[in-house]
Design brief:
globular; single chain; six-stranded mixed sheet; 254 residues
Amino acid sequence: MKLLCWNVNGIRAIEKKGFLEWLQKESPDILCLQETKAHPEQLSENLLKPQGYHTYWSAGEKKGYSGVAIYTKVQPQAVTEGVDSKTHDNEGRTLMADYGDFILFNIYFPNGGQGNKRVPFKMEFYEAFLKKVEKLHKQGKKIIITGDVNTAHTEIDLARPKENAKNTGFLPEEREWVSKFISRGYIDTFRHFTKDGGHYTWWDYYTGARARDVGWRIDYFFVTENLLPKLKKAYILKDVMGSDHCPIGIELKN
């Protein structure tokens, strides 16, 4: 089973860059998208109903902002939105799909914002999500969490750690939350297989960072420990263009 995740930075923009052709070529069983920046009624039939896929969408109240989607070959038993927090559920950031054998979270975690203004909101969202996922975890559920976490966990997860020590995405409290999350039994799948640095999933558009590979690893697949026996591989598709992020993937044994 192949699962992919991609912050597309606008699904209507990426449609014009060959997104649907890429989807058919890669043929993931499940694809999780973040930052779709669209409401379903704004999208083409091809995006809403691509051949072989069911699609699910969560859009924010604000137009052209945030938003997540799931493309899936197998129809889940149930799909719900949000992290059960009125304060944090109006931006279209979360889809939870129950497949019976496992539960999948697709999340676009908040950015700390210019001047770190939204860091308190981001930290509150992290805690609201943790509360929700831990309820399921404590029931022994198998859980996959994927998305743009908007935080590089350790110094090897970004090209310039010292220069970014006071910037959102690499603040001590953000990194500590990721450590806390992992300590509860959620495996960073990429780090399970790859221990060295220099692997990134996001590059700043404005500074042309991608050409120089000055990036950050802020997109993740996490799995609960009870899914580890099924985890075959985890990888980054760094050569896929079209967004300021690239896709990431995992493969599970059936």
